[in-house]
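Field: COMPLEX_INPUT
Field: COMPONENT_COUNT = four
Field: RESIDUE_TOTAL = 924
Field: MODE = joint
Values follow.
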Amino acid sequence: MLLKDLRTAVLEANLEIVRRGLVLYTFGNASGVDREQGLMVIKPSGVDYDDLRPEHMVVTDLQGTIVDGALKPSSDLDTHTLLYREFPSIGAIVHTHSEFATSFAQAGLSIPALGTTHADYFYGAIPCTVPLSDEACGGRYVHETGVAIVQHFQNNAIDPLAVPACLVAGHAPFVWGKDAHDAAHNAVVLEAVAKMAYKTLTLVPGHPGVSQALLDRHYFRKHGATATYGQ
Amino acid sequence: MLLKDLRTAVLEANLEIVRRGLVLYTFGNASGVDREQGLMVIKPSGVDYDDLRPEHMVVTDLQGTIVDGALKPSSDLDTHTLLYREFPSIGAIVHTHSEFATSFAQAGLSIPALGTTHADYFYGAIPCTVPLSDEACGGRYVHETGVAIVQHFQNNAIDPLAVPACLVAGHAPFVWGKDAHDAAHNAVVLEAVAKMAYKTLTLVPGHPGVSQALLDRHYFRKHGATATYGQ
Amino acid sequence: MLLKDLRTAVLEANLEIVRRGLVLYTFGNASGVDREQGLMVIKPSGVDYDDLRPEHMVVTDLQGTIVDGALKPSSDLDTHTLLYREFPSIGAIVHTHSEFATSFAQAGLSIPALGTTHADYFYGAIPCTVPLSDEACGGRYVHETGVAIVQHFQNNAIDPLAVPACLVAGHAPFVWGKDAHDAAHNAVVLEAVAKMAYKTLTLVPGHPGVSQALLDRHYFRKHGATATYGQ
Amino acid sequence: MLLKDLRTAVLEANLEIVRRGLVLYTFGNASGVDREQGLMVIKPSGVDYDDLRPEHMVVTDLQGTIVDGALKPSSDLDTHTLLYREFPSIGAIVHTHSEFATSFAQAGLSIPALGTTHADYFYGAIPCTVPLSDEACGGRYVHETGVAIVQHFQNNAIDPLAVPACLVAGHAPFVWGKDAHDAAHNAVVLEAVAKMAYKTLTLVPGHPGVSQALLDRHYFRKHGATATYGQ
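Field: COMPLEX_OUTPUT
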């Protein structure tokens, strides 16, 4: 079977976001990429999670052409392929409508770095895109969703691996990581961070977030050459 | 047994809303209609969900006259029958006091379309009726509850299948669908949408909702001749 | 064993409030009264719910003198005995620190009748007492807690069975009913009502509540000679 | 095995905070101290809770030098050691990023004593430190986190056993107790207290908290020579 290990890892990421309560019915999907082969593996569209098996995963190239699979790929396919093409450092993508992260996306608000839970994973605010234009909604909408994300990161010179998530205004979060496990983990942490940001910002509206010094300290405790966390 | 499959489907819808946490004790009910026979099947009043069996379901005509069943039908029967008579396209109705949708009903607020989760299921705001008049409360109250719903949809020219839910002011939501599975599914999604709307509106009071273009894009992705979602 | 059935019913009420998530560790208690014998049965103080057996329940008279039982009664005993003496129509009392009802008690706010879930169980606002005076806190505090409840109901001519709960300011709710099952049920419904009132009042601060006509309609649907709900 | 019982108690405290929903992935740690031997036992860094065994616990002296253990200790080690050195009355420490307590820490707000649930455990407001300076973040950060806690308690003459928790601004709570069971219990109660404080303060912004008389009454009901609660 083509890309057997990646299929299993992508399936596992899809199941992890369900186990953690990020997904209602089929509102979510995960994919992973094999950079050497230029192929990606993605969840099929609208299939119950209980029934998902590695062989149901759909394999496409990075233009979205199906290479292997009997089922239709996730309807968000064109966002995934664009992100893989434009963010060459990422290895997997997770999309959910998780409650609190989606509420920030609906509000059109980025999530400032309000504490160390955030700073351990996201080096700065988790951004929210501008709303998609009527032209984008009426045109290649799923592709344009990816464009909104990529433009925000490029215009603001944000490293996608340093801030591995983006809220799409009026929609929901897209989250990524170096591999499928990492992307699902980041999606779970994003939801926890969004939960606490909601409470913090309703207690102290307009809270500016932590200092750059605290952000640096926590982020680099878990990332880069100077990381000290874990075994 | 009369309407055997419909009884099973209605029982399953009643159980689904319990499993999804929409029902405390016996605060909820589901019904389904057989349009050819002009009969409907509804949960009995105040019976524990654990004990419900298909044979407990009550069969009535669309005027509410009991045709089959030893138990009293749900006390909301007259709302159900009126909705079936006035909304000929719907096949099932679910009523719950689910936490967030009911909070909007109590607040007397409709739920604007704040994001794509909403737009995937509801083509526009989920409306809230005006409060029932003292006369309506003192008269054929359960019937008048249905009247408030129907009048709102007729006065505002809303297609009941395009917006398959209504909040009754000071009470709770009524939700419907093309069949019992669909109605229960819509009730679960309504609660998820209401949860996120609550957070969005407390973060950004007065948020106007998404653009018509985004609403169109998502709604017609899952509905109508141009639907692309699922297998 | 003295009052065997009442012990079992009181134990079951204690377990129901745990199962429904109203109790953290040992922060809650239930009691029941036998009016003919002038005796009450109450949970012992600070015992794990997992270990509770009917024989652990403590029997006292309505002055709080222990008649049977090897364990110390709940530290809230004097509130229970006063309520039984002053509210002769009630048969059982439940005290919890359930999250939302306690938050209203801490806020010093009564819970207005904002919807029919409330109106089905509570005929008007669920009142909050005034804060206990320093003298009351320093004196017979547990007794004075009961005094605050009783005075509120007497001064406002509220029938304790029509509004079977009171919030004690800065403390938590006391809930009662005609028997132990009913009191526990009312405590669970109070928490659900408080959850929805919290959302409603943060969406629409100062919401005045439903009309008297709607309150009448729903309350008398489930109570009194004209009740129509259930089998 | 060195400090066998303490390892078991510390492991159990680590598991209790997971069971109670205070910990996401590995975001938390507990330790305990043996005052006679001048040694402490702490959770290893970044290990899954499912895999934790007593022999994985790391033993250090109160300067943080590892005395026994193959794994790296929790990255928060230097906060724990400082607290043990400066607060000689405490026997164990628990650190979590529990949702509501962390939200207050992020907001930079102490939690006032708003009710008796709080007063039963914490004799006054649960304080929040000032934000750590850039120098502290850039220097011996983990040690400085402990310094911020200790200075707050010393400058305000707070007895650490009377208020067994502190929120670190922009970070999360540290909680302690006379032993590991007590510290974990206090961490669970802190989260419950924070949950209710959040609701209370969003209903009544600026609520000043309960009277000193009520605080005294409840705190001394469970603590000190005059305690009456429990068996």
